[in-house]
Amino acid sequence: xxxDFLWGAALSNxxxxxxxxxxxxxxxxxxxxxxxxxxxxxxxxxxxxxxxDHYHHYKEDIDHMAEMGFKAYRFSVIWSRxxxxxxxxxxxxxxxxxxxDMVDYLLEKGIEPVVSLVHFDMPDHLLKTYNGFMNxxxxxxxxxxxxxxxxxxxxxxxxxLTYNEINTASMLSRLIAGTxxxxxxxxxxxxxRLTIHLQIAHARxxxxxxxxxxxxxxxxxxxxxPLYPLSCTSDDMMAADFKNKMMSYLPLDIMTSGQLxxxxxxxxxxxxxxxxxxxxEKAVIEASSKKLDFLSFSYYTSGVQASFEDxxxxxxxxxxxxxxxxxxxNPHYAANEWGWQIDGGGLRxxxxxxxxxxxxxxxxxxxxxxxxxxxVDGKIYDDERIAYYQKHVAALKxxxxxxxxxxxxxxxxxxxxxxSSHKEIRKRYGFVYVNRDFDDLLDxxxxxxxxxxxxxxxxxxxxxxxxxxxxx
Length: 472
Ligand code: BG6
Known about the structure:
single chain; two-stranded parallel ribbon; 11% strand
């Protein structure tokens, strides 16, 4: 691996910070989310007022990252900490102070900050009053948030991500885009409209970042779960191909080419969907494509896609494939308790595929496994997590060393435990255990898991030593 490879991990601050009304922060769409548990998991709810109290423990948490030898750390600036309502003119200085202190501490420890400008944290007021990104006014509120943050952190933060998992916005619209589908709007139109509005927002962010800090490097970001055809039939192949394009490549195609791709225009035309774009909006998308420095993605699992034999109408078939809720399983891979299948080789495929398609430096900014863990005598033996990481780090090494992919870094998910996107503490991802239960906050103490020492060794050896021979 190259000498300056950015080993580290990433966190979504809204899932970890807590302090949800402290120092002027406003409520956001994650705080107010009504939880829908994943299939098979009994209903549960955690509020976000404390989460894993990263707000008050961030120095201790960064000390652990430094101890593991992190070269980089990705965190998110909570939008509602900076603009509590979202539509006010002035930023909350205390919120900016908090993140500047965090960046200063990271730099003091020799850790490169990688900053996400939004991660499940749109101010709740923008959802309730404007319906989030369905309303183009919100694009300008977002641009203001970006400007406030970049103005404050310029010269200190080199790597910026405009928007977490921008491609999942229509699927998880409330959480990701602060928006709900209007009742009288078809799902296909909602998908198309949201895609375009978010691309304008991304492009505005690129424009702002490069104007405020021309030295900064900016990346787009998606969740990438490559879909394989369920069977080796051309129908399933076409189905997988179609959905990969619409769900994963579409935002990256627009970000990198500055244009709406033909297949997307065709998709809208066939359904009589018209999304107005002004000349200025088209121009900002075009201009931002020339300024984008890298592409980044989260990878947890691959998926499978099959066609629907009984649907003969081609448009109905495409729609069924696009919004398919069957959660088909790949018979070749085991899964964690939440049904997320473990496919290390899929990460190699993802890297090779994205690099072939875009020829841009890539950055893995999330990869990890959620496990229900119990601490016994201060120890957490998470060999399952180590096994997961062994497969994925081996895969990314193959992609770099054999396939020639230009990979900037690898950020595992996550340095510390936090609440999952479904606001539960049972599904843990950290290298450091945070001592709290679902309904009892306990002492919120930090305890390194076995994987902490394993990852420290991986980083120290620049990815050469992946053996699980840790004495713990
Ligand atoms: C990613 C999100 O999609 O998945 C994270 O960016 C999230 O915020 C992660 O935590 C894992 O998902 P979950 O539902 O297990 O928290």
